[in-house]
Write a structure and sequence with these properties.
Layout: E1 5-9, H1 15-27, E2 31-34, H2 45-51, E3 56-59, E4 62-63, H3 69-82, E5 87-92, H4 96-102, H5 110-128, E6 136-137, E7 142-143, E8 162-165, H6 169-178, E9 181-183, H7 190-207, E10 216-219, E11 222-224, H8 229-247, H9 253-258, H10 262-273, H11 277-282, H12 286-292, E12 293-295, H13 301-309, E13 315-317, H14 323-326
Parallel strand pairs: 1-2, 1-13, 2-3, 3-5, 4-5, 5-8, 8-9, 9-10, 10-13, 11-12
Antiparallel strand pairs: 6-7
Helix pairs in contact: 1-2, 3-5, 5-6, 6-7
Length: about 325
């Protein structure tokens, strides 16, 4: 077995948030992450910290441009202290439409702007820790005012890991340059990770005299599983739909092209414009499902994840619902 760490996603803020994290810890998961879909990614984490003792916890991912880096810094600093240093900040950009039309925030130079978010966060953390005066001046963000009343002060675990989500070449390289980890998109494959993503992260790390060993690659693959063949068929159908959905977006066509399926991506894109969803799913072959997804009954899921991502990724997110089948207390 490799040193692959196994993580789980837990739900947004509810009475189940802490219980799910506690269950993940008891089963032996290495970390739990919270998404930001129809919920706030930060709010579950005090509950998670209260109900667990050792498991790593983090956002995967919180939206970066909808919050000032200063607001991100305060929330992150609080959670790092409250969790005794177990918190990881995972952030991402989202796409233009959601920034402008769902959140009513400006969209400009997302890659360089994300770089400034990470840089300014590092600087603000140094300020909170008493190691610098607030003085960050970038193209997108500037910070110069910090008084004692608004400085939370030093904490025991100030070196907070920052992961970013990255799909395009710039952001993947950025993870290597300035981040502690890359939260890879589910629309990904072990081959694309090994042959495209990891070398691009390494290129970024080389630019800053860093090592790829210092940047964690976190995979969140599609999973086909179930106790019966009928359950696995339903799971496979759901994954087929998700592949069709993501494959219809040109942002993800590089992954398809890497495997010789660019023309399928173009067909999916054309069909999506007419909302011909059933026809889109028909274009996703069994080979594509097998390439994108980890497929196994629950008791074999961990071994399949190791076979697929061991030696390629550092972490992989697997379903908590089936954790008792492949992890022990």
């Amino acid at each position: 077995m490799s040193d692959l760490r196994i993580d789980a996603m837990v739900p947004g803020l509810s009475t189940d948030s802490g219980a799910a994290a506690a269950r993940a810890e008891s089963l032996g998961f290495d970390g739990v992450w919270t998404p930001e879909m129809d919920n706030d990614a930060f709010l579950p984490h005090p509950l998670i910290a209260d109900r667990t003792n050792t498991i790593q916890q983090g956002t995967r991912i919180a939206l970066s441009f909808t919050r000032s880096p200063m607001a991100l810094a305060y929330a992150t600093w609080d959670l790092a202290q409250y969790s005794d240093g177990r918190f990881t900040l995972g952030i991402g950009t989202q796409v233009k439409g959601h920034n402008e039309r769902r959140f009513s925030v400006d969209w400009a130079s997302p890659g360089p702007r994300l770089r400034e978010v990470v840089e300014s966060l590092r600087h603000i953390f140094d300020v909170f820790q008493g190691e610098a005066e607030l003085d960050y001046d970038g193209e997108h963000y500037s910070f110069s005012l910090m008084t004692d009343n608004f400085n939370p002060g030093p904490i025991d675990h100030p070196d907070i890991p920052i992961y970013i989500a990255g799909v395009n070449e710039y952001n993947i390289r950025l993870a290597g340059e300035v981040c502690d980890g890359l939260a890879m998109h589910p629309f990904n494959t072990p081959g694309y990770t090994d042959e495209v993503i990891a070398p691009t992260v390494a290129e970024g790390a080389d630019r800053e005299d860093r090592s790829l060993e210092n940047i964690s690659l976190s995979a969140s693959p599609f999973v086909v599983t179930g106790d019966t063949e009928e359950e696995r068929d339903r799971s496979r159908a759901e994954v087929r739909q998700r592949i069709a959905f993501y494959g219809s977006t040109r942002t993800y066509h590089d992954v398809l092209a890497h495997h010789g399926w660019r023309s399928v991506g173009e067909e999916l894109h054309d069909l999506s414009k007419d909302q011909r969803w059933e026809e889109m799913t028909d274009l996703v072959t069994d080979e594509m499902v097998a390439t994108f997804a980890i497929e196994a009954p629950p008791e074999a899921l961990l071994a399949q994840a190791e076979d697929s991502y061991g030696g390629i990724a550092d972490r992989v997110v697997l379903p908590l619902d089936h954790g008792e089948a492949f992890l022990t207390e």
